[in-house]
Amino acid sequence: MDITLTLLIIGIFLGFFIQTISGFAGALVALPFLLVVMPLKDAVCYISIFYSISTPIYFYREWKNMNKLLLKKLIITSLIGILIGSFILLYGQPIILKKALGLFIILFVANSLLNSKVYHFGSKTKYLLGLFGGFFSGVFSTGGPLYAIIIKNETSEIKVFRATMFGILGLVSMMRISILAFEGAITTTKLSNSIYVLPFFISALILGKMVYLKLNEQFLKNFILILLFISGLMLLIKN
Description:
Blueprint: H1 3-22, H2 26-34, H3 40-62, H4 68-91, H5 95-114, H6 123-139, H7 144-154, H8 158-182, H9 188-214, H10 217-237
Helix pairs in contact: 1-2, 1-9, 2-3, 3-8, 3-9, 4-6, 4-8, 5-10, 6-7, 7-8
């Protein structure tokens, strides 16, 4: 087994293990492993393939817990953002935007820890954050933390947060992979390599669900804030 396939397996397994527990951060966990052996565009393609496989599974398991109204509000602007972001992914790499996203996430986490008051976003803010969530999903596959910020502020139950995150990230991934496939970025080599990774990916979904069921709600809320902080830090300091 060559180093590319080994790191692809490790990245996808760890990414989707964390994703299944928390509802997001799969791409942020997987990307550092994948970027060691491949360019950003290829890494995003692989992550998109496995997000697309997991989407029907997550929807089947979590549909009843999803906040459907919030999903509807986010999906239209997310599509616009993905179109812009995917274009930039294929033809450029705006690293400064990635660092700006990291700083925004860190400031949000700091505010959440220091200020106990819950701030509810207005409709215009939700649409704007949905647009940027789609954009960063398209260009870096890292829109999850932005969606997590929106959904965390609109849901009080961890199971609704987690399920709604599965919903929006799944829909975003289906849109993103359609664009990448249309542009010819999803090659037969990537699909062939993905078959080797598939058993490890399925194991990640099963083990992640088992761990999630054993964790209490307060721990998961703290875990989500920690993940957000780490995500922001990684985006801020890594090129």
